[in-house]
Design a protein that fits this description.
The chain contains 6 helices and no strands. The protein is mainly α. Helix 1 runs parallel beside helix 5 and helix 4 runs antiparallel to helix 5. The protein is globular and about 55 Å long. The termini are far apart.
Length: 107
C-alpha cells in the first residue's frame, strides 16, 4: 500500500508495516527476508517517504506518523543517507513543537 501516494500519510498503514516487521524480527534470517522484499524499493522509497520535508510536514500534521516512519527508516534503510536527514531533523525538532490544532472560530 505504501508504494502508492494515496497511503503516504496514513499512520495506520505505517503502523501495520511496523507491526509486520516487528513480528518478522522473531524469525531467524529476518534481515535477509526484509532485504529481499525491499530490494526493488531501495532506489526510490527513501526519496518517496523519508526526506527532511516529509518529516517536517509529518511533525506539523501527525507526530505519530513521524515516529512510525523514523522507526521504519532505521530498519529498512540503515545504511541510507536519509538517516542523516532524520538525525538532523531530530536535533532540530527538539526546539519545535507540533503546530496546535486550529479550532474554528465563531464569527
Amino acid at each position: 500500500m505504501l508504494d502508492y501516494a494515496c497511503w503516504k500519510e496514513k499512520v495506520v498503514a505505517w503502523n501495520t508495516l511496523k507491526a509486520a516487521i516487528s513480528k518478522l524480527k522473531e524469525l531467524d534470517g529476518w534481515s535477509d527476508i526484509l532485504g529481499e522484499k525491499m530490494a526493488s524499493r531501495r532506489d526510490w522509497w527513501p526519496a518517496f517517504h523519508f526526506t527532511y520535508f516529509h518529516a517536517k510536514d509529518d511533525l506539523a500534521t501527525d507526530p505519530a506518523l513521524l515516529r512510525a516512519k523514523a522507526w521504519l527508516c532505521r530498519r529498512l534503510f540503515p545504511d541510507s543517507g536519509y538517516l542523516i536527514e532524520r538525525e538532523t531533523f531530530k536535533r532540530n525538532t527538539k526546539k519545535l513543537k507540533p503546530s496546535p490544532k486550529k479550532t474554528p472560530t465563531k464569527p
